[in-house]
């Protein structure tokens, strides 16, 4: 069975530094990595690293920079579906600086909010779960509607509020939110979401359903690189849907994310997994 991941794909240029630069300051980096990034993309890499079949539906286009993402995703074992292969503009780009001593990072990015990609159909087969990140609104809605029609669970990576969520949330089974996520008006359970999960870095993960609530502790770990850790967590969650029940599902995602933050660089943790 395949996990379908629908959303953003960026090019991440990641430089590791001794200290994050102050405004107007120039620093030399310790290392440089270039990799595909973005919430749905990092989640897809995670599913593949865990031994699952990952299908990423996104927009990359024909710009030369897009070839970097295509090569990285192919090396990671991700099945890429580009909805606009002839789109000439550069793909979304993120410039990242990671502090060497504790893995803290700063990110400057241009995402896909300026794109208006239409999705006429989304016919899929043998899908165990769908993850959406809301960065391509039409794609997120098409994927979630398809999943609802075919009785496939939908996981939402809810990093921040987006206008599409008013329409998307009633189609979501599991909303995995950052601690900074805020929804205007009714809470997510009242909006029709079956399970709401809130992560907060090293603090316990909280969860709610209509029947109950609880927390799952996060094991202490020496963080070397936190870039994309939340995306990895969401990918592990989507992979685990149908394999684990709460709170074991959350505990599994916590363990995979811990592997990510212990490793330096966007792909070293994947090699450490030893699956691909």
Automatic annotation (TrEMBL):
One GO MF term: kinase activity
Superkingdom assignment: Bacteria
UniProt keyword list: Kinase, Transferase
Domain Carbohydrate kinase PfkB: from-to ranges: 4-268
The organism of origin for this protein: Amycolatopsis acidicola
InterPro entries per the UniProt record, alphabetical: Carboh/pur_kinase_PfkB_CS, PfkB_dom, Ribo/fructo_kinase, Ribokinase-like
Any Gene Ontology CC annotation: cytosol
Name of the protein described by the UniProt record: Ribokinase
Family: Belongs to the carbohydrate kinase PfkB family.
Biological processes, Gene Ontology terms: phosphate-containing compound metabolic process
């Amino acid at each position: 069975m395949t996990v379908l991941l629908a959303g953003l794909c960026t090019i991440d240029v990641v430089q590791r530094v001794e200290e994050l630069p102050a405004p107007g300051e120039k620093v030399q980096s310790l290392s440089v990595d270039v990799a595909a990034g973005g919430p749905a993309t990092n989640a897809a890499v995670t599913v593949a690293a865990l031994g699952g079949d990952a299908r990423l539906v996104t927009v990359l286009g024909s710009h030369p920079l897009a070839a970097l993402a295509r090569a990285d995703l192919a090396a990671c074992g991700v099945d890429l579906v580009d909805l606009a292969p002839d789109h000439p503009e550069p793909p979304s780009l993120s410039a990242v600086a990671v502090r060497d001593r504790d893995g803290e990072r700063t990110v400057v990015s241009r995402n896909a909010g300026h794109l208006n990609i239409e999705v006429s159909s989304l016919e899929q087969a043998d899908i165990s779960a769908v993850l959406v990140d809301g960065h391509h609104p039409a794609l997120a809605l098409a994927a979630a509607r398809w999943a609802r029609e075919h009785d496939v669970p939908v996981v939402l990576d809810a990093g921040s509020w987006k206008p599409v969520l008013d329409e998307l949330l009633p189609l979501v089974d599991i909303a995995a939110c950052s601690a900074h996520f805020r929804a205007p008006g009714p809470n997510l359970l009242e909006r029709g979401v079956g399970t709401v999960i809130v992560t907060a870095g090293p603090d316990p993960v909280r969860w709610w359903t209509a029947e109950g609530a609880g927390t799952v502790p996060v094991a202490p770990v020496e963080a070397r690189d936190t870039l994309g850790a939340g995306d990895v967590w969401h990918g592990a969650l989507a992979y685990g849907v149908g394999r684990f029940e709460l709170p074991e599902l959350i505990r599994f995602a916590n363990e995979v994310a811990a592997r990510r933050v212990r490793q330096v660089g966007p792909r070293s943790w994947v090699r450490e997994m030893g699956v691909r």
